[in-house]
Amino acid sequence: HVQLVESGGGSVQAGGSLRVSCLVSGLTYTMSEYRFGWFRQPPGKDRQGLAAIYRFGKGPYYDDSVKGRFTISQDRARNTIYLQMNDLKPDDTAMYFCAAGRPRDWAGERGYNFWGQGTQVTVS
Cβ(23)–Cβ(7) under 8 Å? Predict the structure, then answer.
């Protein structure tokens, strides 16, 4: 059973940085083609794909809105996916989610089979 647990959210002033983490458990060798994605959902808005990376190989991929400011990475030894966020803006305020799966479109929710509960990021 695959589980994802996000952590590292919080409140930060505009221009600051945060790193959110996603601890992944339950992956098997048959999931070697999985991708990990980071999404966010501001209050009252749809969920947006921000970045993604393959478990092995390809990536990373970024949405234009965060390219150059956010960096996705993984530590396979720790089974953890990270999203480093720099130069944060008030518009980055949202619940941040990580997801795992084999989507055809890395930025779309469809195809991600497993989701975490989210971690809140607030930028003021």
Answer: yes
CB 82 within 8 A of CB 18: no
Q: What string of H, E and C letters represents the secondary structure of 48-105?
A: EEEEEEECCCCCCEECCCCECCEEEEEEHHHCEEEEEECCCCHHHCEEEEEEEECCCC
Look at strands 61-62 and 48-54 and give their pairing.
antiparallel
**Tokens (6 digits) for 72:** 């996705």
Which residue type is seen at 36?
F
| Amino acid identity, position 81 | I
Q: What is the pLDDT along the chain (124 residues), one digit of tens a residue?
A: 889 999 999 999 999 999 999 999 998 766 778 899 999 999 999 999 999 998 887 889 999 999 999 999 999 889 999 999 999 999 999 999 999 999 999 999 999 999 999 999 999 9
Rounded to 10 degrees, the C-alpha dihedral 79/5/37/17 comes to -90
